[in-house]
Amino acid sequence: MNMQGAAERADQILDGVLAEIQPDVRWVHGPTTTGNCTVTRRRTVMTVVSAQRRGSLLGVVDRFWRENGYRMRAVNNHVDAPAMYAETKDGFVVSLIVADKGQVHFDVNSPCVGYSEVAAPARQATAPLDPEAEFIPRPNIHSDFWSAETPEAAGVTPGS
Question: Is the pTM of this model over 0.70?
């Protein structure tokens, strides 16, 4: 596998986990970075995920990763800035990090692969981003479910 193949695999990993989150969250691409033999793809969630719903989001992602054979490497249960790190069977390291203002970031780091040029991601982001923006803004898209400031009711599933 070369770096372009690794970038495409990272995109598949990101597509898979984001498709699992229901109701959908809106996201933008973060910067793609490359090392001598590695690629990192990033996506930043622009949907506001309230502190009350953060645990639900982390639970959906944790369950998806485990059901797909990912090995959990670390979990940070910090109340304001939780994070989870896992590794796929083919050596890609995936992370979910909750940062300032509850913004959720997904990163996928490839194992060392053969050098090649890396194209921009083919998939279009689901949230708008000003092309002149120097930085990705804080989350700014409201979701009736994910942005709610009440705890999720027991027995209620997202989207129902």
Answer: yes
Collect all residues with Cβ–Cβ distance below 8 Å to 137 and sequence separation of at least 6: 46
With H, G, I as helix, E, B as strand and everything else as coil, classify residue 42.
Answer: strand
Helices (H), 68-157: none
Spans of all domains in the chain: 3-106
Consecutive H or E run containing 53? helix 51-67
Strand pairing category for 93-98 and 39-45: unpaired
Q: Which residues of 39-74 are buried (b: 16+ CB within 10 A; e: fewer)?
A: bbbbbbbbbbbbeebbebbbeebbebbeeeebeeee
pLDDT per position as a tens digit, 40-84 = 999 999 999 999 999 999 999 999 999 999 999 999 998 889 999
Distance CA 32, CA 34 (A): 7
